[in-house]
Amino acid sequence: MRQVEFLYLSQRDVIDVGLTLTDAVGIVEDALREH
After folding, report:
1. Residue spans per domain, the chain
2. Which of 5, 9, 25, 34 has a C-alpha 20 to 30 A away from that of 15?
3. Taking the model in full, what pTM does it have?
């Protein structure tokens, strides 16, 4: 049922999740470059 709930997220939620993932990837990339 969780997959179905995910499909019904509002566009704003999807955009927020996308931005969060983008930020997380950026943080990981910065960490890898520093080390």
Report:
1. 2-34
2. 34
3. 0.49
